[in-house]
Amino acid sequence: MKPKIIFGPAGRPINYKGPAYKAPEYIANEKLSAYEYQAGRGLRISEKSSNILKEESNKHDVLISMHAPYFINLSSNNEKTINNSIDILFKSAQIGDWMGVYRIVFHPGHYLKNKKNETLKIAKSTINKVLEKIEKTKIKNFTFSPETTGKKSQLGNLNEIIAICKEFDNFEPTIDIAHLYARDNGSIQSKNDYNKIFSNLENELDIKRLHYHFTRIEYGKSGEIRHHVLSEVDYGPNPKYFIESLIECDFKATVICESPLLDHDALILKKLYESLL
Ligand SMILES: [Zn+2]
Questions:
Q1: Can you give the CATH number for the domain in which 212 is found?
Q2: How many independent structural domains does the chain possess?
Q3: Sign of the torsion angle spanned by Cα atoms 9, 266, 262, 237
Q4: For all residues of the chain together, what is the average pLDDT?
Q5: If you measure from the C-alpha of residue 118 to the centroid of ligand 1, how many angstroms do you get, rounded to a whole number?
Q6: How many angstroms separate the alpha carbon of residue 178 from the centre of ligand 1?
Q7: How far does residue 258's CA lie from ligand 1's centre (Å)?
Q8: How far is the CA of 34 from the centre of ligand 1 (A)?
Q9: What's the gap in Å between 168 CA and the centre of ligand 1?
């Protein structure tokens, strides 16, 4: 049986040389149990390779998620951008179905200048269009997972992500802890700060498994600047309080490590978890 909290890299492991769609065996051999396939720069994988990824992940018991392209913007005032974003999310659902991913992670968009309040409304209306498009197909197994974002100009604070997930079936949040930390000027400091986030999620949503991103991060006045490895302790957020709080909340969780040391730091997080049980 899988432990309650599982760990894995955001993308191809550091020293792995093979194709991304065959990475599950390597990841399982490292004693990690999750893998977020990166399609941030585009959806170029074929149906055949996607199916191999699915088979490999089942065979090696590695839970797969996919990071959809970065250029999605559900709240643009440009019709072309909106149509493009609908298309990308639709294609992500198709490929995600081939791969058997349990989450399709994406960044929802950017705030409209002078109309911050309208942004969420526009994003929701765009999501409706994506879902209408999917409904006309045979794609049945998909879970979109809008991510908490790291820049203050981006749609995606914790309340907005919760609001989106509350409104639609097939939506579960991706909680990027470093992004929350960066967009709120390093606000997550104590274990209690983590507890507040997790109880907010527990009260608002009915979640079977929570999907997290974690790394140390550097931030400035507009939010996220860059990711740092776990050994760079001058940067937050604090991984120990994160894991301790996760254990106390008793959620099933997947923690995807987005530090520059991907799988290596995912293993450090896993060992930390095991030491705290
Ligand atoms: Zn992330």
A1: 3.20.20.150
A2: 1
A3: positive
A4: 96
A5: 24
A6: 8
A7: 7
A8: 15
A9: 21
Lowest mean pLDDT of 40-54, 104-118, 200-214, 247-261, name the range.
Answer: 104-118
136 CA to centre of ligand 1 in angstroms:
30
Distance 103 CA to ligand 1 centre (A): 13
Of 13-22, 46-55, 112-121, 223-232, which range is least confident?
A: 112-121
Residue 88 has pLDDT above 80, yes or no: yes
Domain residues for the domain of 31 are 5-276
pLDDT classification of 157: cutoffs 50, 70, 90: very high
Burial pattern 85-104, b for ≥16 Cβ within 10 A else e, equals: bbebbbebbbbbbbbbbbbb
Please tell me the predicted confidence (pLDDT) of residue 250: 87
d(CA 239, CA 236): 8
Q: Which residue has the tokens 């992004």?
A: 179
Name the 3-class secondary structure at 232.
coil
How much distance in Å is there from the Cα of 148 to the middle of ligand 1? 8
Largest Cα–Cα distance in the chain? 51
Of 72, 210, 60, 215, whose CA–CA distance to 143 is shortest? Answer: 210
CA of 124 from ligand 1 middle (Å) equals 21
Cα 88 to Cα 110, 185, 215: the distances in Å are 16, 31, 26
Residue 115 confidence (pLDDT): 78
Going from the Cα of 53 to the center of ligand 1, the distance in angstroms, rounded, reads 21
Q: Tell me which residues have their CB within 5 A of the ion that is ligand 1.
A: 176, 213
